[in-house]
Amino acid sequence: MSVLRRVIANFGKTRTFAAIGRRLAPADRWMLRATGGKLGVGSAVGLRTLLLTTIGRTSGQKREVPLLYVEREGRYIVIGSNWGGERHPAWSSNLLANPGAVIALRGKRLAVRGRLLTGDERQEMWDAVASYWPAYNSYADRADHREIRVFVLEPVTEEGF
């Protein structure tokens, strides 16, 4: 891990970073959309980010959100931390209501199916993602009234989206 990435990872644990991150999310979304998932705000420090498109559970409209991810055996693990906020992020509730989604990363769009992880599988994937971005452990401490959702996004053969 580069020195800059280590500094950002440590800063990532703070509430100040969460506030900045919320404000940068629209720019991140725009960059990821414009580059097909090749470049996002965190790219300069080596953060892997994908753009997840879900269907709004009440609106029925497409919703996009940039997310850090870890890849495991061709699947993508994402965390619904909401920066350690009180509520689950909307995208995670959208994915529970309609697991069909699309991700953009590395210049490609992939149809995926989201699945909420539980038990040992959740813990294993949490550990993998938290080792990549240690701030998730701080977010979990701040969100102590709820268990942060962990999803696997599994590629599917037909988009259906």
Automatic annotation (TrEMBL):
One of its GO terms (molecular function) is coenzyme F420 binding. It comes from the Bacteria. InterPro entries: F420H2_quin_Rdtase, Split_barrel_FMN-bd. GO terms for cellular component: plasma membrane. Transmembrane segments: none annotated. It catalyses: oxidized coenzyme F420-(gamma-L-Glu)(n) + a quinol + H(+) = reduced coenzyme F420-(gamma-L-Glu)(n) + a quinone. It holds the Pfam family F420H2_quin_red. Belongs to the F420H(2)-dependent quinone reductase family. This is Deazaflavin-dependent oxidoreductase, nitroreductase family. It comes from Kibdelosporangium aridum.
